[in-house]
Amino acid sequence: MQTRREMLHHSAAVAALLAGTGLLPTAAQAAWNKSAFEAKTLAECVKALGGGVPAESKDVSVTGPDIAENGAVVPVGCASTAPGVKRLLLLVEKNPSVLAAVFDVTDSVDANFNTRVKMGQSSNVYAVALMNDGRALYAVKEIKVTLGGCGG
Amino acid sequence: MKTASLCAGLLALAGMALAGPLAAQTKSAADGIAEYRAMLADGNPAELFEARGQELWKTKRGPKNADMSQCDLGKGPGVVKGAFVELPRWFADTQKVQDLESRLLTCMTTLQGIEAKAVTEERFGRGEQRHMEGLVAWISAESRGMKMNLPQSHAQEKLSYEIGKRAFFYRGGTHDFSCASCHSAEGQRIRLQDLPNLTKNPGDGVGFAAWPAYRVSSGELWGMQRRLNDCFRQQRFPYPGYASDVTIALGTYMGVNAKGAASIAPSIKR
Amino acid sequence: MADPMRIRAQVAGDKATVRVLMSHEMETGLRRDGAGALIPAWFIQEVSAAHNGKTVLNAQWGPSVAKNPFMQFSVRGAKAGDKITVMWKDNKGDSRTDEATVS
User: What CATH number did the domain enclosing C65 receive?
Assistant: First the structure.
């Protein structure tokens, strides 16, 4: 017969094991979505995040330079003017890791985020808005990447 | 006669029409790069190195457990503001013309007791070189916006300039390159990189006035020593010694030529 | 302990524009070192930000984010003197929290 202390210790150990598998319901902060970050296409990624079939929309914008002098650092931005945006995503189509970032939109921030990605080659960059009603809207822009100087 | 001139006219028009879109294409690529650079200007990761350097200056280190507050960069012990734009210059205590990194090396060895080899033989981006990167980032930042104003009053400073000039034009290595091969004329370019003319003042924030810089391609802060080291590599020259006389002389040559150019160091580069 | 972030938070109308520079390798796990061995993946996975203690941003990042990452966002209703806190956590479990005051 386990003592109360032993039982608590045991359930803590089990909880720790379960947490490692990502099967426990997550608390306020979402655990890292491995399947979304391993997705190889826009559709696959959006599906892993629970969104519908992605549709191009003027309510979403992706910003960035037309040409990057070096693919190591490319400034990009994702934004949406539509109401009811739950999340904004940034994807680099030709990268081995297609999904670059997921931003949760709350009432306290603008649905507008900027960051910098690395791009292995010229590629389409997508900004995707995952809406509260399940829709997935996107905008796309091609960013060319060059290799400058004497070969880097 | 009329047909000939008509043909010539048509050809000329065709020539202009062809040149039009081509010119537009080249222009937009250069504009595109300028736009890219502008987008990165805010939030230069060099700031992370500046923060490190600022801390390091005040940190007691080395066998002598001393900080750098007594380090004389040319304007008196501990004076950092404005020092960057007056280097290289001659120093009485070492009886040498020294650039920023060689001067920091002097301070690190004499004030802190750090072994010179720990700096000069370390790979860029590692160990003591990493500390050097932080220091040059912060020290150059403290002169941001100030104009290059290297002294040329001491005989050694003038000599350093002349040696630098000879070194700049010296052709050697397997490809017979010199610094001048790339950097002695207007409007030269390698792929999309404009090559500044370093035989004169190339303008604010260009050339000597733009280094140290955060190099996005390697994600590292490059001091002038590393920049020169890489130039030597690209010319297929043997690597120069770290803070060697020839590198200091080249710095003197470029820095004096850039007199009046506003420094933007540490800047951001591809 | 990782290097501190550089956080700038500036009032812009009824919001504050927050710009963050983080010091991190953001290693993809696909590169090889001089000896040919794979350099292990090491990158920031979670980012969050708070305004006066209240969480306003949660983000998940992958290795496609650039080295020494930069991030910019706007916090609604932030005023001069308010506190902005930013936290990141990487795939090795290392984390960093830094704070700035809105100016």
Answer: 2.60.40.10
A152/B217 Cβ within 8 A: yes
Predicted confidence at residue A13, as pLDDT, reads 52
| Minimum Cα–Cα distance from A74: chain C residue | C66
Low-confidence ranges of chain B (pLDDT < 70): 1-27
| Contact between chains at A118 and C67 (C-beta distance less than 8 A) | yes
Q: Is the ipTM of this complex over 0.85?
A: yes
Alpha helices in A27-132 (DSSP H): 34-38, 42-48
Domain boundaries, chain B: 49-269
**For B49-269, which CATH superfamily applies?**
Cytochrome c-like domain (1.10.760.10)
Number of CB atoms found within 10 A of residue B87's CB: 28
Burial class, B239, CB count within 10 angstroms (exposed 0-12 / middle 13-18 / buried 19+):
exposed
Q: What residues form DSSP beta bridges with B267?
A: B213
**Which chains would you list as touching B if contact means 3+ CB atom pairs under 8 Å?**
A, C
Establish if C1 belongs to a structural domain: no
Tens-place pLDDT, residues B169-184: 999 999 999 999 999 9
* Average pLDDT score, chain A: 85
